[in-house]
């Protein structure tokens, strides 16, 4: 979990476009963020299993 100071820091606009990077909008994770949803794979899986992402379902049973 990201610290509160880090979350506030990455929300501010960067001085240069190159310095911007994607973060999960829920937990603040940097790696493996799906741009289409704006969340990381961990949060994506949790929300998909709970049925909170419309149109997403488990591929295999």
UniProtKB/TrEMBL annotation:
Keywords: Metal-binding, Ribonucleoprotein, Ribosomal protein, RNA-binding, rRNA-binding, Zinc. Binds 16S rRNA, required for the assembly of 30S particles and may also be responsible for determining the conformation of the 16S rRNA at the A site. Zn(2+) binds at residues 24, 27, 40, 43. One of its GO terms (molecular function) is zinc ion binding. Transmembrane segments: none annotated. This is Small ribosomal subunit protein uS14. NCBIfam families: PRK08061.1 (NF005974). Its cofactor is Zn(2+). It comes from Fervidobacterium gondwanense DSM 13020. GO terms for cellular component: cytoplasm; small ribosomal subunit. Part of the 30S ribosomal subunit. Contacts proteins S3 and S10. The gene is rpsZ. GO terms for biological process: translation. Binds 1 zinc ion per subunit. Belongs to the universal ribosomal protein uS14 family. Zinc-binding uS14 subfamily.
């Amino acid at each position: 979990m990201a610290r509160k100071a880090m979350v506030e820091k990455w929300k501010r606009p960067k001085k240069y476009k190159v310095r911007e990077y994607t973060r999960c909008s829920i937990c603040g994770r940097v790696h493996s963020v799906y741009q289409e949803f704006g969340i990381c794979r961990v949060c994506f899986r949790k929300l998909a299993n709970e049925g909170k992402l419309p149109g997403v379902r488990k591929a295999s049973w």
